[in-house]
Amino acid sequence: MTNSKVQCPRCHSKDLYKYGKDPHGNQKYQCKECKRQFAPKTLKTTKTRERKYPSCPKCGKATFLHHDYEYYSNLRCCDKKCNHSFIIPKPTSIADPSYTNLKGKTSFKGMRYPVHTILLTLYLYYLNQSSTREISKLLDCMFNIQVSHVTIAAWSKKFAPIFQSRANELKPTNLSESDEWHTDETVVKINGQKHYLWAILDSETRFVLSFHLSPYRDSRQAFTLFNDAKKNFEQPNAIVSDRYHAYNAATKAIFTKAEHIKVQSFKDDISNNIIESFFGTFKSWAKRRRGFNSFASANQLITMFMFFYNYIRPHSGLNDLTPAQVAGIKYTDQQRKTWLLTA
């Protein structure tokens, strides 16, 4: 006869018989139904061992490290019947995007010209795609303001930290429920050398969620882009990209709950035309610049262009609203024309 209070921890049966002592000297029992051997007193004092790796999300069993990469680890379930493989990212190892490393002025204090003159110059430079010499002539003819084209070229870059900090304050917060985010990369020539502009935008609002300028075209840049977008806007229902292999691991590791849609051809129901159209707008503006002289200046100019695209430039496809306004950020038309400095 066994103690009626003792039951099998596996099948909870009370049909047991004594089975000697365990190494700790405690009474052992064996279940007659499932053959489980256990010592009740030892079970109470023994602490459950923490698993080195996360449990399998499919069956809940232990996992082992299958492959270890720089930005993520590939784990596999120990159960051969399950054999589920999944990816765990390493956010601390992923580099920050290029726009976080900007140099320039953080305020308009100490400027020789008034702020409204500077803003008018930037508006003409980014909206009308006017050259610096054309803007200089216009200011002289229309407003009798003498500004050198060299000074205007410096203005177009040196205020990038101001507007990037403004963009950080006005980020939309309701983009995590979006159906699709589109991502792609395009070539940017800097001093004759190929660089790549990586970007990801929301399909409903056309808001550019993140961008990254890099001389490389590999999965590391995709990890940087996706990690920054998720950190600020969580994740959507689906990620749409082309068939380039660099997006595969980054999508699985960063956007774990999102479906990865790879556009096969132009005949597919879901295409990547939204971000291709955005890159067409960017290329049309960059063509007037006749290339970039250095990585630092290209990074500053592109950062200014992204702020202009998200917050200042009205889009005909969005009922003459900006992507930020469609995303839920409220500001007046006067604030938009003054580049949100009076907000």
What does this structure look like?
This protein has 343 residues and is α+β, with helices and mostly antiparallel strands. The protein has four domains: 1-46, no CATH class; 48-93, no CATH class; 100-165; 171-337, Nucleotidyltransferase, domain 5. The protein has helices spanning 40-45, 115-126, 132-143, 149-158, 160-169, 219-233, 246-254, 273-289, 295-312, 323-326, 333-337; strands at 16-21, 27-31, 37-38, 63-68, 72-77, 85-89, 180-190, 193-202, 208-214, 238-241, 259-262. The mean pLDDT is 88.
Radius of gyration: 29 Å
For the record, give the distance between the C-alpha atoms at the N and C termini, rounded to a whole number: 82 Å
Q: Count the strands?
A: 11
Quaternary assembly? single chain
- Along the chain, the helix and strand elements come as EEEHEEEHHHHEEEHEHEHHHH
| The number of domains | 4
| Helical coverage, percent range | 25-40%
> Strand order within the widest sheet?
9-8-7-10-11
Give the structure's gist in a few sentences:
The protein has 343 residues and is of the alpha+beta class.
List the keywords:
11 helices, alpha+beta, five-stranded mixed sheet, 343 residues, three-stranded antiparallel sheet, elongated, 19% strand, 11 strands
SSE blueprint and pairings:
Blueprint: E1 16-21, E2 27-31, E3 37-38, H1 40-45, E4 63-68, E5 72-77, E6 85-89, H2 115-126, H3 132-143, H4 149-158, H5 160-169, E7 180-190, E8 193-202, E9 208-214, H6 219-233, E10 238-241, H7 246-254, E11 259-262, H8 273-289, H9 295-312, H10 323-326, H11 333-337
Parallel strand pairs: 7-10, 10-11
Antiparallel strand pairs: 1-2, 2-3, 4-5, 5-6, 7-8, 8-9
